[in-house]
Structures
1.
Amino acid sequence: MDEAKKIMSNEEFEQCKNIICSTNMAYIPILLPSPRFVKLIDMIKSIGKVFNKKISELEAKESIQLVTGLSVEAQQAYFIPAIGNPIFVAIKEIEENEAIGWTVAVDIAKSKK
């Protein structure tokens, strides 16, 4: 977030922060994973709108893959609900969402400068 504050206007930063935080609050991570990825794709598209950049679903999926190292499909295939510590899973997913959101926001902001 420090890098984002340096290269974005206050308005852009606050809009991105609100989008990313609302994405984390919009689903329950310990349930089926597919709603998470729908929300992540929407989050990335919304961040693009902050910077007047249209982002396709494919570009959003590629962004997720670049940040996490796994495709959306692979992440869904390896997720098994109710196995492991649900609190740990929720924290991990929230941290990943933050990383994805801020990485995309910073990349777009840099490309606009």
2.
Amino acid sequence: MKFFDYKEIYLAAGGNPSLMLDYYRSSNLGKDWIKNPKVLADFWVSDRHKAEYLGFCALRPYVDYVNYGKVDIAIVDLPPWVPLKLAEENPYLAVTDTHIKFIKET
């Protein structure tokens, strides 16, 4: 597990996915978390998808993981400014009728 600050990384990188990953790798502080950071080493996944994945990770409350082991996001909890299509196209995520599942973190 690794903690990071997605907002800080996004702003520092100006939204550039490659720079976001560089900043993420050097970051160890923040309220956002990824359970299995090794997935970001997959060479076959684009930097854009990896950066978007970090964004989806940042939407999850850590307290839900600690108390219930929950790693997925209910679709109803997805902020309106985040298109569901991003999750549908991300190779690290699976979308069901009710949830966005983090397939590499269960």
